[in-house]
Design goal:
Strand content: under 5%
Number of domains: 2
Largest sheet: none
Number of strands: 0
Number of helices: 9
Shape: elongated
Radius of gyration: 18 Å
Structural class: mainly alpha
Distance between the termini: 50 Å
């Protein structure tokens, strides 16, 4: 494979795919460099460590979700009763067509009992998601119920992604999306 010239952003985007599919511990800097079409030395020119690449990958993924999915909960141009449906439909499209599942769910399951390096970034992601869902549910329910429904949606979807991957069956996620919509 010829050596490519990539920006840091392009390298991170490619690295997200590798981490999502292989996990943090099973991914090496050589894997990342190879997937990016770079030599290991060229890869190290951009990043000091795998941990740095993973942290940047989590940050970029979180920012993308905040801008493209979580923002739906705050969009005054969308009727309240359509926000949850729009968010969940977009979420389903993302995870039905990407191999490897949720990089945050995967990373928490893989690393949290060994180290807390990525705990804050993962917690930030899930808290942002929860706040967006609470904003939606609070239009129809008391704050406490809105929070409970929000955590139920997140748990249902993360569990469904695990089962979908484990059984190679997308229906798990499709069913969780339907059940989550019914919570509104």
């Amino acid at each position: 494979m010829p050596i490519q010239k990539l920006t840091k952003k392009e390298i991170i985007l490619k690295s997200i795919t590798v981490f999502r599919e292989k996990g943090y511990y099973r991914t090496s800097m050589s894997d990342l460099a190879k997937f990016c079409g770079l030599t290991k030395g060229a890869f190290y020119h951009h990043f000091k460590s795998k941990e740095e690449v993973m942290m940047k990958s989590l940050e970029m993924t979180s920012d993308w979700f905040k801008e493209n999915i979580f923002s739906i909960g705050y969009d005054d141009g969308i009727p309240d009763d359509e926000k949850l449906e729009n968010m969940l439909d977009f979420y389903q499209k993302v995870f039905l067509h990407k191999k490897g599942g949720c990089i945050f769910g995967n990373t928490v399951l893989e690393t949290i009992l060994v180290e807390d390096t990525f705990k804050e970034a993962s917690l930030n992601f899930f808290q942002s998601w929860e706040k967006s869902l609470v904003k939606i549910f609070a239009t129809k329910h008391a704050e406490k119920i809105a929070k409970e429904k929000s955590t139920q949606v997140i748990g249902n979807l993360q569990g469904a992604i695990i089962l979908m991957i484990l059984n190679d069956e997308p229906q798990y996620l499709k069913d969780a999306i339907v059940k989550s919509k019914e919570l509104y």
